Amino acid sequence: MLQPAIDWLVHSLLGFSPDSRLGAAINFFLYDSIKILLLLFFMIAAIGFIRSYISQNKIKVWIGEKKAFANLFASIFGSITPFCSCSSIPIFLSFLEAGIPLGVTFSFLITSPLINEYLVIVMLGFFGWKITLLYVLSGILIGVASGMVLGKMGLEKYLVKGVVSEDKQQTKDKVYKGLIQRIIFAVDEAKSITKKLWLWVLLGVGIGAFIHNYIPEETIHNLINKTGPFSVILATVLGVPMYGSCAAIVPIAVVLFKKGVPLGTALAFMMATAALSFPEAVILRRAMKLQLIAIFFAVTATAIIITGYLFNVVQAIL
Predict the structure, then answer these.
(1) For residue 196, what are the domain limits?
(2) Residue 245: strand, helix, or coil
(3) Nearest CA to 281 among 267, 266, 295, 302?
(4) CA 7 from centre of chain
(5) Residue 164 three-state SS
(6) Quick one: which of 291, 306, 296 has its CA closest to 236?
(7) pLDDT tens digits for range 198-250
């Protein structure tokens, strides 16, 4: 429903050619902005409604009891949610609001864009079940390991005040009288967070639309091919500023692989593009200080680089 409406608006009403870079960039910007803002509002409202039935204390106690597996559960949950790096942020913020530890929420934020059912289907067709299975397992492992490392670093001080409520006691002890009051709470929370983030969403998606439509695939391929043993590092660095869902990046990874780029290098580019993006950093800036964003990106990128080299080592076996 949304995409045909955007196509009509951009191509028929505004008169931009669907084959032009500018027309494609405007289409990309409008579609992703609307999609992410709607997700932002409705996902926060939905989780806020559910959260009104569960006390913060119970959530913290449950996670405390399952501490050894909390990152794994968050990473697996992320793997079954069909979101891109920017669309995962609303649930990430809702988890923080629910009192879930920062490291655990990062495990979700990392894995959610890396793995989803669409990606698995596309990868099965292009790469076969062995590579697909290893990719899924490595994606979950990246989420778990990175989340655990980030959780041990005591980074909560780098969260921006006001985006996530600091008065956990008030939220925990609040008693809701009936369904209507719970819905009002959920909608008010969604409106509050959306108002704080909408401008950053538009800015981030705008940057992503430009990068997505104005940087040719040939340029990326030529750069990667010239770096030899450092190709995994370069592929990851090139992938981070890009923006797109992992399923949309699979064909690019396939083209790179077929043109002689090692498997791990191609997958590292795909992982970095999906899990980390400059638009994501822009949106997260409203919720995190620059230090936390830099540490989050550095830890995740390092895990992706290590995984890429491991895939290159075992490529002959696969």
Answers:
(1) 2-314
(2) coil
(3) 295
(4) 25
(5) strand
(6) 306
(7) 776 677 677 667 766 776 666 666 777 677 788 899 889 888 877 665 556 67
